[in-house]
Fold each of these.
Amino acid sequence: MRFERNRRGDWGESDWNLLFFFGALDFFAVALDLSATKNGNSRWGDSRTAPAMCILKKQ
């Protein structure tokens, strides 16, 4: 994917969609991180956690 500018110098529509997609992805990663912290499955000390381990331990 290329980041192209249109004639006005603004970002194209696809650039904003890409930005929104990665922003949403980051939001869900943080939400999973926080839910894993609440369940006590910590990986990096006590403040950060591993979402994958949280999912694995529930099974």
Note: The chain has one domain: 13-58.
Amino acid sequence: MAGSALRAEEELEVEAQAEQEEGQQQQQQEVNYHKIFHVVAELHRRGYQRLRIFPLMSPSGCSWRCNLVPLDNIAPMSHSFPLEYEDALLYSSGAQTSFLDGIGDLNADSATAIADAMIENINETDPEDVLARAKGEDSAYAAWFVDEFLAKLPPGALPCLIADWEQDDPYHFGVLGDEHADVKIKFPPVRIDEEEAKPIVSILGFAKARAWRKVFQLLEDHPGLIDEINPYGKSGFTLLHQAAWWGDVEPARKLIAAGADIAKPDSQDKTPLQVARSRKHKKPDLLDLLSKGVE
């Protein structure tokens, strides 16, 4: 009996030690994630101010991501959303401390050292090099990044711009965790081009952010936009395609009731139904709604 009690006590001690080490590792990892933001601030100081962050959760919800996006890949009239997701420097928490395929170590290297390595690896002859394209002035964003974003982001907190729920007030960065519900980090300045400052860009941007209340408010003033295809990027979605992509049943129902063309293809020649079927959610109510009059 004494031996059994001793073994049980030892097992409890091992479990407690493992939990403590796991907690310490998680805390360290959260600090390391913030180092990414300090790398960006360092790059801004060195003249690469046209680099923006796009933090989000993976579709599975198992990992946090932070994409570094050049300004020329930010959607017009948007502050952070890229035209093409892959046209960026991509980091996932699944990579642990390895930053950008090992260009830096988020545990061992300083933000300055990582910025040094990134600049040293720039390929000036490659027109698609993300960091080379990010060189240039964007003082408004650089100031926002330090004075608003870094100043208000709580220690260890992870920002997130893509949520799995409708956002009725899409004017602040989301911060993961109920304990950060009151954190309000204003969005950065939007990218504005004279030719591109159009209602279609705004309404599709709200749809992409799942801010459907704002979408329907804009449709009241611009009903002709209901079937317009996004002229920027490769996806070429209409509003109904975007609702299908997200799996948002009620917004899709309201769009159809407002006159959205259920059979209109996007720029990739896919109908909203085909887009919905390509997604993992495959909601029966949505598929049934989008199939009426199509099949």
Note: The chain has ten helices and eight strands.
Amino acid sequence: MILKQSSCSMSPDIHELVENIKSVLKSDEKHMAEAITSATFLEQMMTLAQQAMSLSAHVLPVRWHPGLLHPEGFGGLSTFTTDAGNPKLCSIKQAYDQGARSCADPIHAR
């Protein structure tokens, strides 16, 4: 191959061309190594993201998360839950149906 031949037998123009080609090949080699490193990094990130997504799929429904509202029925907001095991507080729909007094009095709220 001409790139591996001794530069003694080449004319100066050909020698310069060969050196330029070698430089480009080394540069391409460096860029290829960088591309492989980047691809490996992206593959690892995608794997971690997929694992996180599969873990989040095993999380309990929203209604079981402490302090979150969840939809219930036909457009009303459901009960507010807590993780302390306290009874559910009255929903906005219950407040509308039963009046403000029943929300303030959890014994009578149903």
Note: The CA atoms of residues 1 and 30 lie 22 Å apart.
